[in-house]
């Protein structure tokens, strides 16, 4: 068993660790294999998709998680066209966030298969204000069905948490219900570290309890402010200096920097997060 350590800079937050892909750590070529969730630069993408991707590549990002799927297209482009654009820049769309109704499921999975993603991730699901265990059991059944459907196209299905999943029902949370009620072979989880800490839970507790389930990560930081807003990785209260310690336990395969809201230019924030995270990995 791994010994717990205090991974948070402020005494009001819980302990945390995060992880990186083993091959990435061993090979460590300069400015390669760093991921970003494109929601971070959504406004810039809306103005200039190709130019924004090129700027992200110049910063050093190579792994992408999309957040712009709609009706068979990605950011208004056919899957093959978007893939060609990304490939030319030496980048790869590893994962994609998308929600869809049952009548759109076949189209969505086919489009993601054509794009060649490893993961299709649900960014969340609607739940009532007064949640019950049955709400999460029904959600788990839906996740299992999606996992089965995605697996037929050689895509791994994933679920991304916010904070509402950590509502407690006695000794368990809604997140426990999702993790324990889904097929580990067909449903992965994308651990959003910010939202776990925001909810007041210790992510390491979940890595211990459900090892290998968290194949994707959102690496994002929290302001030292009453509203606990978003800030660049390495500039907030979550200490990511121990991120390599939980690599094997969590099962993490890919990570994506994300900043939901930026005080300034999102591309500048993306560059600050990249450099800080790179320094944490290789500068110490």
Describe the structure.
It is a single chain. The chain is an alpha/beta fold and 284 residues long. It has one domain: TIM Barrel (Alpha-Beta Barrel), CATH 3.20.20. Helices cover 37% and strands 17% of the residues. The strands form four sheets. It has an eight-stranded parallel sheet with strand order 1-2-5-6-7-10-11-14. Strands 3-4 form a two-stranded antiparallel sheet. It has a two-stranded antiparallel ribbon with strand order 8-9. α3 packs parallel to α11, α4 runs parallel beside α5 and α6 runs parallel beside α7. The longest helix has 19 residues. The two termini are 25 Å apart.
Brief sketch in words of this structure:
Helix content is 37%, strand content 17%. With 284 residues, it is α/β, with parallel strands linked by helices.
List the helices and strands and how they pair.
Elements: H1 22-27, E1 35-37, H2 42-47, H3 49-59, E2 63-66, E3 69-70, E4 73-74, H4 79-88, E5 92-97, H5 105-115, E6 119-122, H6 133-151, E7 156-160, E8 168-169, E9 172-173, H7 174-180, E10 187-192, H8 193-198, H9 203-209, E11 216-219, E12 221-222, E13 230-231, H10 247-250, E14 254-257, H11 266-282
Parallel strand pairs: 1-2, 2-5, 5-6, 6-7, 7-10, 10-11, 11-14
Antiparallel strand pairs: 3-4, 8-9, 12-13
Helix pairs in contact: 3-11, 4-5, 6-7
CATH architecture: Alpha-Beta Barrel
Unreliable stretches, pLDDT < 50, 5 or more residues? Answer: 1-31
How many helix segments?
Answer: 11
**What is the number of beta strands?**
14
SS-derived structural category: alpha/beta
CATH class: Alpha Beta
Shape verdict: globular
Rg calc: 18 Å
**Roughly what is the average pLDDT, rounded to an integer?**
88
Query: What is the CATH topology assignment?
Result: TIM Barrel
Terminal CA distance reads: 25 Å
- The structural domain count equals 1
Strand content range: 15-25%
Fourth CATH level, the homologous superfamily: Divalent-metal-dependent TIM barrel enzymes
Residue share in helix:
25-40%
What's the SSE pattern?
A: HEHHEEEHEHEHEEEHEHHEEEHEH
Largest sheet: 8 strands, parallel
How do the strands line up in the largest sheet? 1-2-5-6-7-10-11-14
